[in-house]
Design goal:
Blueprint lengths: L5 H8 L3 E2 L5 E2 L2 H12 L7 H12 L7 H17 L2 H11 L10 E4 L15 E5 L2 E12 L5 E8 L10 E6 L5 E6 L10 E13 L6 H37 L1 E2 L2 E2 L4 H32 L5 H33 L11 H13 L4 H15 L2 H8 L3 H12 L1 H24 L4 H12 L11 H9 L4
Parallel strand pairs: 3-6, 4-6
Antiparallel strand pairs: 1-2, 4-5, 5-9, 6-7, 7-9, 8-9, 10-11
Helix pairs in contact: 1-2, 3-6, 4-5, 4-6, 6-7, 6-8, 6-9, 7-8, 7-13, 7-14, 7-15, 8-9, 8-10, 8-13, 10-13, 11-13, 12-13, 13-14, 14-15
């Protein structure tokens, strides 16, 4: 039986509460977990270390702290690259503080009731107030509602419609001028305080040039999408560990269930998918690291721009399916909250799917970027995609109607191609299973005499 994480379990059972004074109260276990996480230095770490720490953190599920870590890391990068000297001096040090009780955490509030992913439809207004700005309006889906620093998109009065008129602002909690209407009761990430917030003259500081506000916000979102994929990979790995351990111990009809072919197939698919998600996301991590260091060339930057969206789409969907397979491996026990973390991981994975962009929105953005950057040849080369897939992608870029209907499938195949390429030298059997399942037209396991042996090779000698 798996050991359930006590701090995570307690903080999810005793959900955040909005107090009459506008503060948010958490279970003490939430803060115990937070102290350990912040002490690791995850927020201010370089990309490879940050990725490794976040991947391990996600093994426990969201737990209420993965989102604050991601949002804080995003604002740290934005301040370093877009903030003025004054803003960096004032707001950056408390964000990278490793003492949880002294540190400040960040949030990013973009979503509005009528706009959703359509940030260009935002109505929160920024109004000049002397040398500064004040924000007025409502944000509809505000995770980390207890944050100390908010990154908020708003339209300066008189600015044009759409994304060109969006500014990006840093709003300190200490400045007041806002109220939390209520906390949301979510399917997953339940230990995390998510609310609806109304700004009523909150003081705000432009983060970068006003006319580049949407670009600044996208940079923050890209940090979130990168770490989201690492989180999905971590959720998958934990589910696989739980399912494999259970299957080796659980006996049914005189045999441990890991001896049964269908159970072995299920475990092999889980393992291959977890390996794949980590492989494609580490490719992305290397790009983030080069960009952070100022070592990325134009092709690296373009590949990052495309991969960060496509990879988030593929890995978040895969995580939900893999954790569902883990629940199947445990049977009824897989639905019991105090038996394993799988119910919590499953709820969190579904939220991860919508976190920082729905699948269709991300895929549409990748297709637009492929056309804008003329990057089909680039992504084919970097991913190892087939000539057949390259032709399909070019058709979608050349004919937007085709891309609107079929591009999502093509981008799934693109990321799968990258995963197979990345795994060939490290996990060749997992790579081969992925290739057959996702990239081989007409492949049928029943017609593949090697399939049982391939499952065994993926699982290894100990399974």
């Amino acid at each position: 039986m798996d050991v359930v994480d006590p701090a995570v379990e307690e903080s999810e059972r005793n959900l955040p509460r909005l107090l009459e004074n506008g503060e948010i109260e958490f279970d003490p276990a939430y803060h115990r977990a937070g102290r350990a996480i912040w002490a690791s230095g995850i927020v201010g770490a370089a990309a490879p270390e940050q990725a490794s720490l976040f991947y391990l953190l996600a093994h426990a599920g969201e737990g209420g702290h993965a989102c604050p870590v991601v949002c804080t890391a995003g604002l740290v990068r934005a301040l370093k690259t877009r903030g003025s000297d004054d803003l960096r001096e004032r707001f950056l040090p408390p964000l990278i503080e490793t003492d949880y009780d002294q540190a400040e955490r960040a949030a990013q509030f973009l979503t509005e009731r009528h706009g959703g992913s359509d940030v260009g439809a935002n109505r929160v207004e920024a109004i000049r107030d002397g040398a500064g700005w004040r924000l007025h309006g409502e944000k509809w889906f505000c995770s980390v509602a207890d944050a100390d620093q908010f990154l908020v998109t708003a339209r300066p009065r008189g600015a044009p419609e759409g994304t060109p008129g969006i500014g990006c602002f840093l709003v300190p909690r200490s400045g007041g001028g806002f109220r939390i209407r209520r906390l949301k009761d979510k399917l997953g990430t339940r230990a995390l305080a998510t609310g609806e917030i109304e700004f009523e003259g909150a003081p705000a500081y432009p983060l970068g040039p006003l006319e580049d506000g949407f670009r600044t916000a996208v940079g923050v979102l890209n940090t979130s999408r990168w770490l989201n994929a690492l989180g999905s990979a971590g959720l998958m790995r934990r589910a696989t560990i739980v399912a494999e351990g259970f299957a080796r111990e659980r006996e049914a009809f005189g045999r441990v269930i890991s001896d049964y072919p269908l159970v072995r197939e299920n475990l092999a698919v889980m393992k291959a998918e977890a390996d794949a998600a980590l492989a494609s996301t580490m490719e992305l991590t290397e790009l983030v690291d080069r960009i952070d260091k100022g070592e990325a060339g134009e092709e690296d930057t373009a590949w990052h721009r495309l991969l960060v969206n496509a990879n988030k789409f593929v890995t978040s969907l895969a995580a939900t399916k893999v954790i569902r397979r883990g629940i199947e491996a445990l049977g009824g026990n897989g639905t019991i909250e105090d038996f394993s973390p799988l119910p919590r991981l499953y709820r969190d994975a579904i939220v991860f799917e919508s976190w920082e962009g729905t699948h269709n929105v991300l895929c549409a953005q990748v297709l637009r970027d492929l056309a804008r950057l003329d990057a089909v040849d680039l992504v084919v080369e970097r991913s190892g995609a087939s000539a057949e897939l390259a032709a399909r992608l070019r058709r979608s870029v050349d004919d937007p109607a085709v891309g609107a209907l079929h591009g999502r499938r093509q981008l799934d195949a693109l990321v799968r191609s990258l995963q197979v390429k990345a795994l060939r030298s490290r996990e060749p059997h997992a790579a081969e299973l992925l290739r057959r399942r996702h990239l081989t037209p007409g492949w049928d396991p029943e017609d593949d005499p090697d399939y049982p042996d391939l499952i065994d090779r993926v699982l290894g000698a100990d399974a």
